[in-house]
Specification:
The complex is a heterodimer of chains A (226) and B (377). Chain A has 226 residues and is an alpha/beta fold. Chain A is built from seven helices and ten strands. Chain A has one domain: P-loop containing nucleotide triphosphate hydrolases (Rossmann fold). In chain A, a hairpin with a 7-residue loop joins strand 1 and strand 2. Chain A is globular and about 50 Å long. In chain B, the strands form three sheets. A six-stranded mixed beta sheet of chain B has the order 5-6-10-7-9-8. In chain B, strands 1, 2, 4, 12 and 13 form a five-stranded antiparallel beta sheet that branches. Chain B has a two-stranded antiparallel ribbon with strand order 3-11. Classes of the chains: A alpha/beta (226), B alpha+beta (377). Bound molecules: adenosine-5'-diphosphate and magnesium ion. Magnesium ion binds next to helix 1 of chain A. Chain B: Belongs to the ABC-4 integral membrane protein family. LolC/E subfamily.
Chain lengths: 226, 377
């Protein structure tokens, strides 16, 4: 569903500290499968996720989403695609402090203009299914790591995206919570979602639910396939 | 349309919860902002109302005043001038007035003494203004005595006091009978302080003034319209002074609000990044911040204006009474007639709500065009 061809990404291009984080990536991410980007720290995993998820544009190369070239689209259209197609679970979870977990879950849907009651019901439902229904009214900053992540997952799912993207989802969790997370990934996959994550955790890469592991090193692919 | 409404509602709800999230900053801004609006609105409401008040009071005063000048100084005017004036065509009536100032050592205050003709005051009685009542804590029936020009004692019995509604001018009034006035100052019968002339056709005022001037070369003629202009300029001057003082605080406010509203904290920058990453458009983020700015500035405007209204019309503008009022030593204490000028409200609104909202949006704009991928770091 997502195809990258010869994608390169430079930071600080043209300056003294120019740095090529990705040096020519060719990659296909199949729909309805779980794909993991693996590699040492600094190898470009997160950068690759931002390109796939329309958070950033490649310096050169093409990114195609369902046969539509999105690498050259203006920001407005990217936002539209991002909102309807992708749900993000950030490494630091990035919940907004000072508001309830429930409101955090609802935020991505605000600009769509849904009825607030429906929206709240949907958010509650999602939180129930992720086993954090009891935390709906808690302030985001009081949640434990595992709870915060599940709130972040609920937020990623509120607009019912086709693709869920998670950056280092198990980096902040103990092994028990990590297994719980993989359980959630399994239900996501079962419901037809495409899941994309980065990880260098063998627990993640070797799980049955993972269909593809893509290994990165120094901004280049080392090996593709399962 | 429904979607659009829902969206605005959702954004407004979220902006309210954002504001309550930054409670300290929000309350601080609200407090400073409200007090600025309060001060500005107070000056505006007060000076406007007081000018109207003065105009109403002056409207009752004579259209033309004739004073006698001797060696360039205002002197008593003989009654025979009255006949000369009454002989001029277009003059409706003319009468001699007696007035002056009386220093009261007991209260260390000056009173404005006048002899009203309609209704007359009985000899030995006095009618006093509100300010005199307070200065001397005099009640009807009390006795007040003063030394006349020759050292003899003149005694007055307080008949009644003047109602408060036109206190701006009448606070220091001391109304006595003609006989008592002449006895106090030793003014012979047949002499007056000045002459009040009323004119049949208001458009002829200037022409008649010229005729009086020609017939009585030793006089000076004062037109009511001129007095009105003088008062206006006095108020303008005082108001101007206050506004200059206020300008300083407004400038400070502008800098403060720019600093507060425009200084995006790292936290806010991160939040904007998150909003954009989860699918908010730059426009949505700006709309959110604009709503936040509007909520703050609108509520500050409303609260500040209402407080100013209460301050000016219910609490007698206690804060600036000494500055804006006071050609009399005794400050009038009374309630101004409430009056709100739409243009004034609009001006104040424009100069407070508008800049603040802009100040909140400008830096957001800069932050909102930052790439959303920064939140992945
Ligand atoms: N905004 C940026 N400016 C400059 N260099 C960056 C920026 N973002 C990432 N990098 C560099 O790009 C490389 C790849 O980063 P990243 O994709 O985060 O790696 P990973 O997620 O695999 O640890 C790193 O060396 C990092 O320092
Ligand atoms: Mg990373």
């Amino acid at each position: 569903m997502i195809h990258l061809s010869d994608v390169r990404k430079a930071f600080n291009q043209g300056k003294a500290n120019e740095f090529w984080a990705l040096k020519g990536i060719d990659l296909s991410v199949p729909a309805g499968k779980v794909t993991v980007f693996r590699g040492p720290s600094g190898s470009g995993k997160t950068t690759l996720l931002t390109l796939v998820g329309c958070l950033a544009r490649p310096t050169s190369g093409r990114v195609r989403l369902k046969d539509r070239d999105i690498s050259g689209l203006p920001e407005r259209f990217l936002t539209d695609i991002r909102r309807s197609t992708f749900g993000f679970v950030f490494q630091q979870f990035n919940l907004l402090k000072g508001i309830s977990a429930l409101e955090n879950v609802m935020i991505p849907a605000y600009p769509l203009g849904h009825d607030r009651k429906d929206l709240s019901r949907r958010a509650h439902g999602l939180m129930e299914s992720l086993d954090i229904g009891a935390k709906a009214q808690s302030m985001a900053e009081w949640l434990s790591g595992g709870e915060a992540q599940r709130v972040a997952i609920a937020r990623a799912l509120i607009n019912d995206p086709e693709v869920v993207i998670a950056d280092e989802p198990t980096a902040n969790l103990d092994s028990e919570r990590s297994r719980q997370f993989l359980g959630i990934v399994e239900t996501l996959k079962a419901s037809g979602k495409t899941v994309l994550m980065t990880s260098h955790d063998p627990l993640v890469c070797d799980t049955a639910v993972v269909d593809h592991v893509v290994t990165l090193h120094d901004g280049q692919l080392v090996d593709s396939g399962a | 349309m429904r979607l659009w409404l829902n969206k605005q509602r959702n954004l407004l709800d979220f902006s309210l919860s954002s504001l309550s999230r930054r409670r300290g900053k929000t309350l601080g801004m609200l407090a400073v902002y409200t007090s600025i609006v309060f001060l500005l609105a107070s000056v505006m409401l007060f000076s406007h109302a007081i000018r109207r008040e003065a105009a109403t009071v002056l409207a009752k005063s004579p259209e033309v005043l004739v004073q006698r000048m001797v060696a360039g100084r205002h002197d008593l005017i003989p009654a025979r001038h009255l006949d000369a004036i009454k002989g001029i065509r277009g003059v409706q009536s003319a009468e001699g007035r007696l007035w002056g100032y009386l220093f009261d050592p007991a209260a260390v205050a000056n009173y404005t003494l006048m002899v009203p003709t309609n209704p007359r005051i009985e000899p030995g009685k006095v009618v006093i203004g509100d300010g005199v009542v307070r200065a001397r804590s005099a009640d009807p029936g009390d006795l007040m005595s003063f030394r006349a020009h020759d050292g003899s004692l003149v005694q007055f019995k307080v008949d009644h006091t003047i109602s408060r509604d036109s206190a701006l001018v009448s606070a220091d009034l001391f109304l006595v009978a003609e006989e008592d006035f002449r006895r106090l100052f030793g003014i012979a019968p047949g002499l007056f302080t000045d002459l009040a002339v009323s004119v049949r056709n208001p458009r002829e005022v200037i022409k008649i003034a010229e005729k009086i001037d020609a017939a009585l070369p030793d006089t000076r003629i004062i037109l009511r319209d001129e007095i009105l202009r003088t008062y206006e300029s006095v108020f303008d001057w005082r108001e101007g002074m206050l506004l200059v003082l206020l300008a300083g605080s407004i400038l400070a406010f502008a800098i403060f609000s720019w600093e507060k509203a425009s200084g995006l904290s790292a936290e806010e920058r991160r939040e904007i990044g998150i909003l954009k990453a989860v699918g908010w458009e730059t426009g949505d983020v700006i709309r959110l911040k604009m709503l936040e700015g509007l909520v703050v500035s609108l509520s500050a405007f409303l609260v500040g204006y209402l407080l100013a209204y209460a301050h000016v019309f219910h609490f007698g503008a206690g804060l600036f009474e000494p500055v804006l009022k006071g050609w009399a030593v005794l400050y009038p204490k009374y309630k101004l007639t409430p009056f709100v000028d739409e243009l004034q409200v609009a001006t104040l609104f424009f100069f407070t709500v508008f800049p603040y909202t802009i100040a909140t949006v400008v830096p957001i704009w800069r932050a909102a065009i930052v790439d959303p991928d920064t939140v992945m770091r």
